[in-house]
Design a protein that fits this description.
The complex is a heterodimer of chains A (404) and B (296). Chain A is mainly alpha-helical. Chain A contains 16 helices and four strands. In chain A, strands 2-1-3-4 form a four-stranded mixed sheet, sandwiched between helices. In chain A, strand 3 and strand 4 form a beta hairpin. Chain B starts with a strand and ends with a helix. Classes of the chains: A mainly alpha (404), B alpha/beta (296).
Chain lengths: 404, 296
Amino acid sequence: MSRALAPSSASRGGSFHDVYLVARREFTERLRDRSFLIMNVFFVVILVGAPLLSAVLTGDDGPIRMGAVGAEAGAVAQAAASSAEVFDLELEVAQVGDRAAAEAALTGGDLDAVLLDARTVLVETELPGDLEPLLASAASGVALSRVLTEAGVGAQEQADLAAAPLAVDTLIEPDQFDFGPNFLIGLIGILLLYGLLFLYGQWVAQGIVEEKSSRVIEVLLSAVSPTRLLAGKVLGLGLLGFLQVLAIAGIGVGTVVLTGIVELPEGAPGTIALIVAWFVLGYATYATVFAIAGALAARAEDLQSTVMPVYVLLIGALFIAQFTAQDPASIWSRVAGLAPFTAPLLQPLRTSVGASQPWEVVAAVALTLLTIAVLIPLAARFYGGGVLQVSRKIGLRDAWRGGR
Amino acid sequence: MLELQGLSRRFGDVVALDGLSFTVGEGQMFGFVGGNGAGKTTTMRIVMGVERPDAGQVRWRGKPVDAAARRSFGYMPEERGLYPKMRIAEQLAYFGQLHGLSKAKATESAGEWLERFGLTERGRDRVEQLSLGNQQRVQLAAALVHSPEFLVLDEPFSGLDPSGVDALSDALLGYAARGVPVIFSSHQLELVERLCDAVAIIDRGRLVASGAVDHLRRQGRDRRYRVDVAGSGSAWVDGLPGVAVLEKNGSSLLLRLDDGTDDQLVLDSARRAGDVTHFGAVEPTLSDLYREAVTR
């Protein structure tokens, strides 16, 4: 060993450099972990597989192939085809010569149903789905139209009559919330948020306990201050979590857009961006309390009890979110949407149905940021006081005193 | 040099350190000796900044020791600890970087230490895959990887086989020879005596003796001789001025000579009494000094 290797006294090793080194280790060690890899393979399979699977299961079989024998049946079939969309159907119409040709086309699988005349439909075994009312109403329409035409009512007049809109009046003010596809994205999103906050928070706590139980903490603290060690750990894992959330969102949206199987709902990018943003805020909030829980435990077994209050917070947040999902106007949903530990799950869900006023979003973010600002120095102190207590579990009070 | 000045530390009702002061000089190999619970580990943890003293301070090269100074120290704690699942070479490089080396230098130095300990082939293994002896070597490498300017080793020899003890002794002597002070604690007093220029003996948190081993041997002690005159008792000693019998074991006597007494005259008397099979000054071992110091 040459003396030249000796560190040029603290030329390196500013506080950022320490934090960076610790963060990089946390990031790369976790990234290389086999269980992390398996989890992500699982996510990709779900993200790519679910839309594909749903497309296969809902079975978009293409349009119903409708034959018609003669002009009258043809007119009815055309009328049915033009209003098929109301019944969520699609019709293709073809003229067929006679009944024999119709039978041949049905048994040969070229057609699904054939109108023999305005009121008779021939099928192989049964009429597909909602075809019966569609054809019945089309036949009535054609018959009515013929009578009206004979009575001298013009085509334009008939069209205007048919298109007259229906006014809907209600006794009770309808919900202003939109429980459309965005709501579904919100629901899936907060489940994902919950899972990731749980996982990454757990990793923060476990990482701290592992350093204690393996006793490597003493070697570390002879070179790095506890605050920097904690900061590096939280930032390294947080960055990994953030990238994972981004990747999940990207792969999810990418699959939908690229395959084109399912349409991306309007407003979905906004909802997804909110979920990503709330992961950052939620992680910052929960990582600090998970860190405190980790600093109080000496071994993995202790962690179960010290981390319990944090679990209660996080599970409680999910519970409130699920419970009030259909009722965002309730006081529960509104309050939990503002409160720091529940807002990360409530707020994206509320926003996805348009239930949050802009001021509520701003207030929730501000309160969460304020909480984070208060929690960080607290966590640093508890961590500093608890992290060297490697032989037994300690209480908050002792950790506080130890963290001078 | 490192100065400990009046270190005190209590844990609840237990006094771990009680005004402990001593100095480790430049390039000194310094042994730290004391019974279990005497306060050695607490002292070392305070030096490394892992524990805070209730009173007193540690000074390094004339200034209170701070984080920047400690970054240049190497430390091997009593309870060994490494990341069990992290690869060895990367782990050593990581510790090197935490101690201020650049990434390239840290990697290079980690490789050199692995080579030195014959672990080059295992650089990509995880710590938990190594035998305990090899884990101990990696732990030591973690303390040395940044070429520390001061070494603090808590019981570095415990758990090593004889060849491991020799290898570590050589490495530490090499360090001290380059001017890097080394302080280590050990219960193996013969080893401490053989390796160290100076020692500190502590008991219940208090310093009972410190200084160069040779100096401690002579300091305030009477001159002792072991004499064996075949077939004779202790009668020949009677009447010799300034000589007292401390111990009698058959014909073997342990004598105390007063300061003015000429040992050659005692030898003459012995020869007159019969065949002298043994005559020699008795130097106390470190174990003797330790026992005397802690029972005083």
